[in-house]
Design goal:
Strand order of the largest sheet: 12-6-7-8-5-13-16-15-14
Number of helices: 5
Shape: globular
Number of domains: 1
Radius of gyration: 19 Å
Structural class: alpha+beta
Order of helices and strands: EHEEEEHEEEEEEEHEHEEEEHEEE
Number of strands: 20
CATH topology: 2,3-Dihydroxybiphenyl 1,2-Dioxygenase, domain 1
Strand content: 35-45%
CATH superfamily: 2,3-Dihydroxybiphenyl 1,2-Dioxygenase, domain 1
Helix content: 10-25%
Distance between the termini: 26 Å
Length: about 290
């Protein structure tokens, strides 16, 4: 029987390889709304003033390689619809392409940073309805019980009414902003589910062979992890040094819980690496997972 990961497990910083750190630091502050916590040579740590949410390491020779496993997007969870409205208004004000979408249980916008890293910015809106899986099909219902696609364009006009006269678009994202989930390209959904569910202990919230996707979480959240084969079944990992995901962080609530997860991984013979930030493991598609105390 699979032992569930602790319900208070959270996601932490996402680590990316980039080719032009100065350019991205300007964009993430001016357009996106992060702050630079510190810069140490070729690496910069960003967030909203406390824990790091994003760590960028510069490799000027790095290039984007298509058709590989890796990051589909990382998702930044805002504490309210009002803050989502402010984030989208900021993107509109500088005419940066983004795609507001209504998932019913969440409201969101999608965009890429200047080097092609996928990002979602969202707010949880369970009062608007819910989504689930039944017989491998994705289902979304609004608060009145009506079936919805879960992929409708967001009513941006209504959302922007959340803004108040004192809301300043140039101010950074607020305290309480965090990494809500990470969505990965994998080579094989079943193999990835085995790793994240059977070994790490994330609960399966839904899976669809038709979609080529699965969603997992800790503590009953709609999802902390998305997995898909949208780059093709059997897609290879990117070569060393490519642009994109280095690893993402899974934060356990204490040392005991961390050791239990690491021990389950080690019993299978999967290699672990002690780093300055935590214990690094790799899923079957070679996506890096940094296990730490969050």
């Amino acid at each position: 029987m699979t032992e569930s990961i602790h319900p208070n497990t959270t996601l932490g910083a996402v680590y990316l390889t980039v080719s032009d750190l100065d350019r991205l630091l300007d964009w993430y502050q001016r357009v996106f709304g992060f702050q630079v916590h510190r810069r140490e040579g070729e690496t910069a740590h960003l967030g909203v003033g406390r824990e790091d949410l994003l760590v960028l390491t510069e490799r000027p020779e790095a290039r984007r390689v298509r058709g590989r496993t890796g990051l589909y997007h990382y998702a930044v969870l805002l504490p309210s619809r009002r803050e989502l409205a402010r984030a989208i208004a900021r993107l509109f004000s500088v005419r940066y392409p983004n795609y507001p979408t209504d998932h019913v249980m969440t409201q969101t916008t999608y965009l890429d940073d200047p080097e092609g890293n996928g990002i979602e910015i969202y707010a949880d809106t369970p009062e608007e309805g819910s989504f689930s899986f039944a017989d491998g099909e994705f289902l979304a219902r609004d608060a009145r019980g009506n079936l919805r696609s879960g992929r409708d364009p967001l009513d941006v006009e209504t959302l922007l009414r959340e803004l108040m006269p004192e809301d300043r678009l140039e101010e950074p994202m607020p305290a309480g902003t965090k990494i809500g989930h990470v969505h990965l390209h994998v080579a094989d959904v079943n193999a990835a589910v085995h790793f994240y569910h059977d070994l790490l202990g994330f609960d399966i919230m839904g899976a669809s062979q038709k979609m080529g996707a699965a969603f997992l979480s800790a503590g009953g959240y709609h999802h902390h992890l998305g997995l898909n084969t949208w780059q093709g079944e059997g897609a290879p990992p990117p070569p060393p040094g490519a642009l994109g995901l280095r690893y993402f962080t899974v934060g356990l609530p204490n040392q005991t819980e961390l050791e239990q997860v690491v021990e389950r991984v080690r019993r299978t013979g999967i290699a672990t690496e002690q780093t300055e930030y935590g214990i690094l493991v790799r899923d079957p598609s070679q996506n890096g997972v940094l296990l730490t105390i969050g």
